[in-house]
Write a structure and sequence with these properties.
Family: Belongs to the OmpP1/FadL family.
Shape: elongated
Main location: membrane
Radius of gyration: 22 Å
CATH class: Mainly Beta
InterPro entries: OMPP1/FadL/TodX (IPR005017)
Structural class: mainly beta
Keywords: Cell outer membrane, Membrane, Signal, Transmembrane, Transmembrane beta strand
Protein name: Long-chain fatty acid transporter
CATH topology: Porin
Oligomer: single chain
Distance between the termini: 43 Å
Length: 429
C-alpha cells in the first residue's frame, strides 16, 4: 500500500487536535510491549479483560460488539502513570560502563473518553478516544555519551486512537461490531547522534523536534452468549497504515514508516455465581510486521543497509502474546470489587537491547485491583491501581564490537517497572 501524503489528512486536523487535547498529549505507557494493557477504568481494574466483558463504554475499544450490551452511557477517566526506566552497560571497550536512569520525566496524566448510544434493540453507536500505546525515556546522563553523543538522550512516542463504532444484533445473544480507527502518532528522539553515521539520511535522524503522523485502520468483533453463564468474544484489528515520520526518515525503516501492527484476541466471561464473574482474554500483537519495530540490527551489521533505508535496521521486537485474567465481585447493589493479572511476552530479545535502551518495553507481569461505586441509578465512580514489578533483560552479544557501526562490544541491560492509579466517572442516561 502506498504511503499516505500529509495533504490527505488536512481535513482531519480539527478532530485529531481535539482528541489530543482530550488525551493530554503525554502518554508514556508500555505494559503489553508499547500497547496499553487495556482501555477504561473498569476493564483496567480487572487485568485489562474486555473482549467478552463489557463493563463501561471504553470496552468497545477491545471489542466493538460490546456496544449492544452497555445501554446508553458516557465515561470519562484519567490515569496517573509512573514508569521506572533504566539501563546499564557492562564490559564496553569505549568506557561506557555505568548505570543510567531514564526517568527525567517521571509522571504522566492520561485521560480517556467513551460514549455509547442504543439506537434500537438491534443497533448501537459509540466512540472512544484513548491512548492505545506509547513509550518515553529521558536519560539526563546520556548512555551514548562515550560514543560521541551530547546532551540528554531519549524518545517520546504517543499513539492516539479515535474509534467511531457501530454494532448490530444478529439474533438472541449474538452481536457483531466494527470500528474505524483514526490514528494519530507523535514522535521525538534526542541525543542519539552516534547512530546517525549509519543512517541513509543523517540530517533527519535525531534532535528534529516532535513530528506527527496520521493513519487509518479497522477493528471487527463478535460477542455471543453461549449459555446462561458463559459469554465469549473475539476481535481482529487490521494493520493501520500511517504517514511517514518525515523528520525521522533517517531513523525508521523505509524513510520514516511506522505503522500500527495488527492484533487479535479471544475472551470468555463466566458467571461463577450470581455475584462473581471470571474473565479470561488472550491477545496477540504482531509487532514484527512493522519493519521499523521488528527488523533487527542485522541488516546494518551483516548487509550494510543503513537506518532509514528500505529493509534497514529496526528495534528487533518480536510478536507478543498477553494472557489476562480478571474477577468482578458484586459485593453489594452499589459496590463492585475487581482484581486482575496480565502476563505479556517480553518482545525485546537479549541480543537487541542496545538500541532498546531508548524503548525498554520489557514488562511481563501486571497486577491490578479496582472498584466501582454506584452513587445512584445513573452515576458511578470507578478506580483502579496497577503495579508491574521491574523486569530486566540482560544483554547477550548486544553491543556491536569494533569501529562504527560497532560500539566497543559489551552488554546493554534494560529495565522497566510501572505503577498507575486511575479514576473515572460514568453516566447512564
Amino acid at each position: 500500500m502506498a504511503r499516505k501524503s500529509r495533504g490527505v489528512w488536512s481535513g482531519w486536523g480539527p478532530l485529531l487536535a481535539t482528541g489530543w487535547v482530550l488525551l493530554g498529549a503525554g502518554p508514556a505507557f508500555a505494559t503489553d510491549g508499547y500497547f496499553s494493557h487495556g482501555a477504561g477504568a473498569q476493564q483496567k481494574g480487572a487485568g485489562g479483560t474486555a473482549i467478552a466483558s463489557p463493563r463501561d463504554s471504553l470496552s468497545i475499544a477491545s471489542n466493538p460488539a460490546n456496544a449492544l450490551s452497555l445501554g446508553n452511557r458516557l465515561d470519562v477517566g484519567i490515569e496517573l502513570f509512573r514508569p521506572d526506566r533504566s539501563a546499564s552497560i557492562v564490559g564496553n571497550a569505549f568506557g561506557a560502563d555505568a548505570s543510567y536512569d531514564g526517568n527525567g520525566t517521571e509522571t504522566f496524566f492520561i485521560p480517556e473518553f467513551g460514549y455509547v448510544r442504543q439506537l434500537s434493540d438491534n443497533i448501537a453507536l459509540g466512540v472512544t478516544v484513548y491512548g492505545n500505546g506509547g513509550m518515553n525515556t529521558d536519560y539526563q546522563t546520556n548512555p551514548f555519551a562515550r560514543f560521541g553523543a551530547t546532551d540528554d538522550a531519549g524518545v517520546n512516542f504517543e499513539q492516539l486512537f479515535i474509534t467511531p463504532t457501530i454494532a448490530f444484533r444478529l439474533g438472541e445473544g449474538q452481536s457483531v461490531g466494527v470500528s474505524a480507527i483514526i490514528v494519530g502518532q507523535a514522535f521525538r528522539a534526542k541525543g542519539i547522534g552516534p547512530f546517525a553515521a549509519a543512517s541513509s539520511d543523517p540530517s533527519n535522524f535525531t534532535n528534529r523536534s516532535t513530528d506527527t503522523a496520521f493513519g487509518l485502520g479497522a477493528r471487527v468483533g463478535w460477542l455471543g452468549q453461549l449459555n446462561d453463564r458463559l459469554r465469549a468474544g473475539a476481535y481482529y484489528q487490521s494493520r493501520a497504515y500511517t504517514q511517514d515520520f518525515e523528520k525521522y526518515r533517517g531513523l525508521f525503516e523505509d524513510h520514516g514508516a511506522f505503522d500500527v501492527p495488527s492484533n487479535y484476541g479471544v475472551g470468555v466471561n463466566y458467571a461463577l455465581t450470581d455475584s462473581i464473574n471470571l474473565a479470561f482474554d488472550i491477545r496477540r500483537i504482531n509487532f514484527s510486521e512493522v519493519d521499523a519495530v521488528g527488523n533487527t540490527l542485522a541488516p546494518l551489521l551483516v548487509s550494510g543497509i543503513p537506518f532509514g533505508a528500505s529493509g534497514g535496521p529496526g528495534f528487533g521486537w518480536e510478536d507478543a502474546t498477553s494472557y489476562k485474567l480478571g474477577v468482578d465481585w458484586r459485593a453489594s447493589p452499589s459496590l463492585t470489587l475487581r482484581a486482575g493479572y496480565d502476563h505479556a511476552d517480553n518482545p525485546v530479545p537479549a541480543d537487541q537491547t542496545f538500541l532498546n535502551i531508548l524503548a525498554p518495553g520489557v514488562v511481563e507481569d501486571q497486577y491490578t485491583i479496582g472498584a466501582t461505586y454506584a452513587l445512584n441509578d445513573r452515576v458511578e465512580l470507578s478506580g483502579y491501581v496497577l503495579y508491574a514489578p521491574e523486569q530486566t533483560v540482560h544483554g547477550r552479544n548486544s553491543i556491536p564490537p569494533g569501529a562504527p557501526p560497532g560500539f566497543g562490544g559489551g552488554e546493554a541491560n534494560i529495565s522497566l517497572g510501572e505503577t498507575a492509579v486511575g479514576f473515572a466517572i460514568g453516566w447512564r442516561y
